[in-house]
Predict the structure.
Amino acid sequence: MREAFTRKAREHGCYIVVPTYLLDSKKKKLCSNAAILVGRKGEVVGTYRKIHLVVSLERGNMEGGSTPGDALPVFDCDFGRLGIQICYDMEFADGWTGLARQGAELIAWPTQSPQTSQPAFRAKANRCYIVSSTWRHNASIFEPTGKIAAQITPPQSILVHELDLSYALLPWSSKLRNGEALRKAYGDKVGFNYYEDEDCGIFWSNDPKITVGEMAREIGVLELEDEMARVKEFYRKAKVRR
């Protein structure tokens, strides 16, 4: 199986996240539910072993006797920083927050579950993209806004979507005009998805000579984190309880 994935990675010049079970020790009868990250040249970049294994309360074991992992690696890829969670990991916040603290920008989530509300929440709470892969339906890409950027349902089986990990989240403001102010100023140099129902949008630059943050500052708009930092400082000085 390993040969097949390394061959495909080299053939297409891509990274592949391979969910599998690993026999860690035949003598000790140790195995783990894992995901192996294969690099563009077919090399093994690293492995994540699932921490939150499904518990069978009736049988008193975890996934048939599997051993839980104990590490949350973040992999430095040529496109950005990648983390991995597997299926039932979705139910527990510590894995997602742990990856976010280490700077994960994109988290791959191979899973049997087609759920969407919880991964949307995790993406928004941890300011990252999440890519789900499930054999059932709703394989999706979740934005840091909490919105679904792309999704497939049967009979579709392949999802292709381009995203930019260098983005800015911009809240509603009269200056922004739902993104039209940036479009007027920069035309095709700026790309964005603005959501009126959330009073927020995600923006990126299509011009390597200028960042989206610089664009926003040019029209006098604050990024979400900067606005909230100023609001909290205002509250602090006004002695407003938080």
